[in-house]
Each structure stands twice: as structure tokens, then as C-alpha cells.
Amino acid sequence: MFKAGHVLEGAFANQKAAEFFPAISANYAVDEAQYLTELLQLADPGEAGIAAIRERARSLIEAVRGRENAVDTLDALLRQYSLDTQEGLMLMCLAEALLRVPDAATADALIRDKLNAAEWERHLGQSDNVLVNFAAWGLVMTGKVVDPETADGRPKNVIGRLLKRSGEPVIRSAMNQAMKLMGKQFVLGRTIAEALKNGRPEREKGYTYSFDMLGEAALTAEDAAKYMADYRQAVETVGAEPQVGKGPRPSVSIKLSALHPRYEVAQRERVLTELFASVRELAVLARQRNVGITIDAEEADRLELSLELYEKLLRDPAIAGWGEFGLVIQAYSKRCLPVLVWLTLLGRELGERIPLRLVKGAYWDSEIKQCQVQGLDGYPVYTRKEGTDTSYLACARYLLSEHTRGVIYPQFASHNAHTVSCILAMAEEISQPREFEFQRLHGMGDALYDTVIEKYARNVRIYAPVGAHKDLLPYLVRRLLENGANSSFVHQLVDPRVPVESLIDHPVSQLRKFAAPGNPRIPLPPALFGNRKNSQGINMNIQNQWNDLASAYQPFLERQWQAAPVISGQRLAGTPSDVRCPYDLNKVVGQAQFASAEQARQAVDRLAAYWPTWNATPVEARAAVLERLGDLLEQHRAELMALCTVEAGKSLQDGIDEVREAVDFCRYYAQQARQKLGREELKGPTGERNELFHEGRGVFVCVSPWNFPLAIYLGQITAALVAGNTVLAKPAEQTSLIAARALELMFEAGLPKEAIAFLPGDGATLGGVFCRDPRVVGVCFTGSTDTARIINRQLAEKEGPIATLIAETGGQNAMIVDSTALPEQVIKDAVGSAFTSAGQRCSALRVLYVQRDIADRVIELLKGAMAELRVGPTHLRENDIGPVIDQEAREGLLAHIQQLKSEGRLIAEATLPAGLNGHFVAPVAFEIDGIHQLKKEHFGPVLHVVRYDAADLEKVVAAINGTGYGLTLGVHSRNEETAERIEQLARVGNLYVNRNQIGAVVGVQPFGGCGLSGTGPKAGGPSYVLRFANERTTSTNTTAVGGNASLLSLGDD
After folding, report:
1. pTM to 2 decimals?
2. DSSP per-residue letters across 629-689
3. Active-site residues: which are they?
4. Which tens digit of pLDDT belongs to each residue from 787-797?
5. Lowest-pLDDT choice from 120-129, 587-596, 762-771, 896-905
């Protein structure tokens, strides 16, 4: 952990920047409590200091509240519709979507959906602000328009009736007006020229500006080029503007994600060449025009890459010595202070002046979720606002210390009057005055900084968004989430109802009042599931985590592996065949020996003989084996990932996810067995005891697929074993090696060798034996619908008990996108769902239905996003998409692709690099008329796109149901009613709304379909283990001996 408490002693001052750099990565998700203890040493000004700051903050707030412009419209609006009320959220959601929806019908449906659901009357007349009251009235009216009938069928009021005639279109134009007002409040101008004009009065007061061109991250090269042109234009225009007022010259802020569609760590080489060239070009222009440039901060995963890029730019002769090339660092990041130290060392080495904007950070909620999803050890951000505030003050103290003098030009961005008071106090302690400035957002904190400029004569820069109103909302939602929660300072500063006392507590004092510095209501990712430990992930975007993984993973890529039949722990000989790597056909990965029919008969004999012993083993002991296996899988993660790569062609991230899923299955089924397989006494009449308990059924056969050769293989086997069955494991022919390695780990975890038989080999040969053996009580199968039918017929015809079939089969999975959806989000999710794992997932997206009104934009984005995909060997991190599993799969897909190409419906096809020697199929997308055109599932990277009319939504769902499959379905819509209607109509196992439709998590999204997609119950769900068990009851008459002792001995209460 970084020794933050030592920075002021100059502990790191003699290090070279390059030597120090690894300290940044090492601090990614350190223990919050321990690290805050370090930061408190810097942030705490002592009792007298805290008291003095209190008084300064008090007088500053009182001065601010006394100003005429203290409450702006936005503060008033936020106070009424704060984002912790349902109404506030609905208002934002509605506004955000309405600006994008091109067709009136969908817009009106969205209005109905959002306005029906909230209690607008509560807000009537609650605000002193005319506009806000007007908004409340408008919303109440619209609520009445939309739902004019009372329960007894009488209209609520005359106005309701009058408005009913005009209906939603009136609301639509009113909302658009309201959004324009909000736009003016938050956006300085639609163009940079308009912004300069509108900002003139503020500049005359002494403010300056940093202009931010609105827009989200670029997904395509075209988008990136458009943003580049916007930035160029901004720099030219600001450069031509004469100086106004006493403040510094205006500058321009840029987002790296807007300038390159693949600004991510896996594409590091491209970032350090292509993105470098774009930023360098802007910086050269800006230097000529005398306009400063600031690189905005983005998500935590990109921090280290952005620093590497910044260093390369700073060392470039065209930028060196300029002194106006700055960047933004977020104080909610645990890496913030080490980054500041590194920048100081770098600046000293190069003799540079670095403008540095310190912000609190705007992606807090998504950073927390991301870590939980990825199963990381901790969070890169603080889990309490007070932690972030403490970090901000600690970093400010370092930025104003002598160590940074002459190197860092600090820019403090905050709307918090207490934070401002702390910084003013720190600045006054310095013997020699320091140059620094404050920064605020346009539309917020006007009164606070007018006071600061007058009273303290400090420079203040306004960060002002510029752009069309439709681009405003993603930015606005971020700002509102940041400032709109009721705890927000912006709100409370100007709200006369909030006592000043409550606003002038020092975060250091607040933090010390808590029992723990971390927020106990936000569990660490490993503890997400309470008493079941979450599987451990890795964040490959963090340098030290990547280094550890790469050094563990690489050696296994060259290893040779073996698989052979194993019965009762004895390894037997079989028919040998070489296993070749699907992305490099010259590479032999190892050898698999396939079992014979005779060995299958022998296996069933042994398993049947051992079953009573295993069935009598206590559930606790069986569950403990699974938990030990889960731990072993994590210990051998790098090796298992390498096997997934060389045998199944999986990418690194797919490999991490595969091991995690296998671990989750082990822990989840162990927990389920403990909860559900014990003895349970059932309620009944007095004088008898009725008990329900479970036991294994006998010999279960588990037939697993090649597309999840570890996770599904172990998911089936562990469920069958923990329920008390002995198992015959038959892995897919293509992936016997990883299955054999997992078997070794099962034995290492303490599974009795007689409880499982391992038979790699040909499905038809072995299936002919076990599907006809009277001692086989059930088959658990994942694979094609056709194979499931064959197994089902054979089981039905065999002698002996009626056998169970648990089958998870194919899908013809669709995603339905209406015009309220955000096209950029749709494309991220559709491309991920269709092409991850080369489209070889049961859950993968095959048919994308897009409402006609937005289809052109979605298809244009799809083309651009597909052009960015990289296909190639998957042991290399920069490749997004690997091979399909074998030659047969490839030929089948190419025939389908050829057929569709001949019909002239190609949308886009990714490029295959020259010189590949594997089973590669380029990701491809076609337009078709409807899902009915597809006669079977095409298991690979092929996406089919269909346009539909809004009025035909129900017909679309009927067509999807008409295929007979029912596995996954995606929906992208901001209209909850639409999503609910689709949920009612669709016959699918897994419905995903406003996200991708792959990667179901054990215990969180139990996975499995219905119809042609499988029998259920869902894998990773609460009913799965029970399907492998027999239920038994025992009823005992406890009075048979004579008399009902328990009844007779009842006392009186």
C-alpha cells in the first residue's frame, strides 16, 4: 500500500518517474480503512484548523445565501424532483429518451409509461420557483390527461377532459420546451461561437472557461473523426477570440474515448500510435493558437493507459515546454495521490509545467457495479462520500506543497463551500504564495464563486458543455446523479431550509464518527452473496494484475496434455488421436484416447456397485468436496485458462469467466445441497411425525458440450454428485483434455475415485451403451436439440426405471430494439452478444429486430463497430474474436454465409487478417425479412438484422415464439410497459432488458430455456440439484406405543 502519510516528507522525491509508476497500479483497490488512515494524516488540519475552517465556511455560505442569484432554476428543480424520488428519476428518464425518439407513437407510449407511475400532485406549489411550479402543474395535468378516469369511471376534472383531446402530443411539446430550458441552464451554447458570446458577461466578471464538446464515446472511426473535427473547430474558434476580462485564457477539454473507437487497454498499441497521433495533432494546433488543452478523466480501467499516453505526448518535441497541456485526476480513486506524485516526478524530469484539475469523480456508481460483476477483491473508489472528500483534501494538500511548486499548476474543481474553504486555508499557510485556480460547472455554483472572486480574488474557470441539446442528456444525467442526490452540497448550499451548521462539518471529523471508514451497506465483491463466496475475477486493465496473470498463463500455452478413460481411478487405454489447436492447426496440444463401448459397460457396472456407499455419504461431506474443488479451480486458474485457449480457442476474458462460472457452480450447488437435501419435518396432526428427505437416484450420465468445456462439464457433474448419484462423465470429443485435467482436481478435492467414471469419446458409440443400460437413472445433456431427441428416444425405449432427461439445447435468440433505446448502447450489447466467443454460446444473439424509425442509424453504427473487431489467435489479448471449434463447424457456417451473400443482403463483414491457420470465420451481419427465414440455429459469428414497424411489436414476439425455441431474448427500450408486455408474451427462459444477453451468472441469472431449447430446470438455479434427487417421506405414528405423550405433557401458558 502506498505510504501516503510520507509524501510531504519528500519520501519519493528522488525516484525516477518510471521507477515509481508501478506504485500506481499497486494501489488500485487497497484496503479502504487502512488507506484512509494514511490519507487522514494529510487531510487533518488539527482541531484548531478544523474550527477555523468551520468559521470561514460559515461566513462563505452566509454570504452566498445573501446573493440574488443564490438559487438558480436548476437548484430549485433538483430540490423538488431530486433523483432519490421516483418522480425525479422518471422525469430524467423521460426527458433523456424523448430527445432521441424519432417517431411520435413511441414517444407518446413512453410518456404514458413514465407519467402514470408517479405521484406528481405531491409537488404542486411546493417550490418558490415559478418554472418548477409550472413543471409540476404540467406534470399533474399530463398525469390527468394520461389517466383521466377515476376508479368509478368518472373523469377527474374538466381540465382533464379538455386535455384528453389533445393528449400526449401536447405533453411531448411541453417536455421538449422544458428540456430546452434545462439545456440553456446547462449548455453554454450549441456551437463554440455561441458559447463564447454567451460566456462574455462572466468573462468580464473575471471568470474564464474550459469548453467541453458534448457527446459520448466514439464506437466507430466515423464518430471519432466527427469529434476530431469538432475539437479542431473549437480550438480554432477559441484561438481567434480576443482576450476578455482579467482571467486566464479559455481552454478546451477533450475526451480520449471520443477520439478513438478502441480506447482500451487491450488495444494499447493502437492507442499509443493512432490515438497518440490525433491528440498530438490537436495539441500542436492548440499550441499555435495559444489555447490550453485538458484531457478529461474517464473510467478507472483506462487510467494507467491514459497516463502512458500522456507521458508519450509530454515527451514529444512538439508539445515539450508548452505548459498548457493538462489533465484531470479523480480524487475518488485510491490511485489518485500516487498519480499526482508520478506526474510531479515526470514534470521535474522533463522541466514541464502541468496544469492539473482535481475533481471528485463522476462514474462512482458504475465503478462499484463493475467490480462486483467482475468479482474483484475490492473497489478502486471509496464507498463513502466522506472518504472521497478526505482523499480530495489530502491530494489538495500535496498539490499545494513545496514538492509540486514550479511543476504542477493546481486547478480545484468543487461546488462544495467547505472544500473551497479548506483549500483557501491551505493556500494561506504557504509562506510563498502559489498560483492555482478554482473550477466549477456551467449552471452550478454561480453564487458561490461570484463570492470567491470578489472576496478572495482567485481565478475561477467554468467548465462549460457546448453542443446540441440532444447530446446534453447523458452529460446532464451524470451531473444530476452527482449533484442531485439529497446529500449533495450543491442542493443544500442554497437551500434556506438546510441549517448552515450541517454543511460545515469537516469530512475528517465525519469519517472518524463512523464505526468503519468503509460503507457496510456496500459489501466487498467477494462477499456479494453473503455466506457463499463469490468467485474471484481479474481486472486485466490493471497493470500489476495483468503482469501476474500473463506470467502464470504463458508457460502453460506450450504444455502437452493427455486424456484417457478413467474408471474407479484407473487410467485405461483407448483409441488415440491428436488434439490440435483451433487457431493454429500446426500446433498439437496433446493426445486424447477415446473409450470403447466395452469400457462404457464396465464403467456402469462399477458406478452401480459404488452408488449405495456414495448415497449414504452425508450431504455435508459431499458438499465439502465441491467447495474444496472450487478453491482448487481458483488456485489453478491460469492453467485452466490456457487449456480453454489452446483446446477450445477461447479468449483470455472468456477463460477467466469460464473458471469463475465453474467455481460458482461448485459453491452454489454445495450451498443448495446443505439447504435442501437434509431431513425436514412437515406440519401435520399431533401424534405423528412426517419427514421429507432426499437421496440420490443412482447412476447419472453427464454429457457436456465443447463451448463451455469446464463450466458446464463441472456444473452437471457437481450437481449430480452432491445430490448423491455416481456419475459417468462424457465430455465433448473436441475438449477432452480440459475435462481430464478437471477430473484430476476432483480427485485432489477428495472425491472418491469410485464415484465417477470418465469416458472421452464418440457420442454415438458410448451413448448407444449408456442410453440403453437399465441401471442408468438419468442423463444430463447440453448440446443440440437433434441429439437431445435421439437420447430421449433411446432412454424411453430402454428396460429398467423410467429415466430422467435434463437437457439444455439450442436457441434462435433475438433482441428487440424500439426507438426509445440508445443506439450506442444497443450496438455495444448486440455486438457483444452476437460475436463474443465467436458466437458459440447457447445464449448468443442471432436475430436483431430494430424498429424501422431508428434502423438506419443502428445499422450504420453496427457497420462501424464491426469494422473495429479484430479476429485472430486468442492467446493474444488484442484479438477480440477467435476461431470456431472445428472444420465441420466452419464449413457449415460458410455455406450459410455464402447463401445469404448470394441473396445480396450483406450489411458488414469483419476483416480476416492474412496468414491465419485455423478455423476462423469473419463476424458477419445480414439483413433478412424475419426470423422465419432461418430454418436452424447457426452456431457462430453470424448476426441477422430485421426491421419492424412499431405497430407490429406483438407480431414480432409471435414470430420469435413461432420458432419453437425459447432460450434468451434481449429487449432494449426505455419504456417499461414495452418490456413488461414482451415479458408476458415471450416464451423464453432468460429475458434481458437494456443489457447484453450472454454471460448468465450462477445463482443470479439461472440459465435454461423451454420448448426446443430444453427441459429445465435451470442450471445455477434453486431447482436444479433437486432434479437429480429422489424425494422420500417417512410417516411415523408416535402414539403406537400407547398414548400421546407430547399432547398430554403440554403445560398451560
Report:
1. 0.94
2. HHHHHHHTHHHHHHHHHHHH---HHHHHHHHHHHHHHHHHHHHHHHHHSS-EEEP--TTEE
3. 808, 842
4. 999 999 999 99
5. 120-129
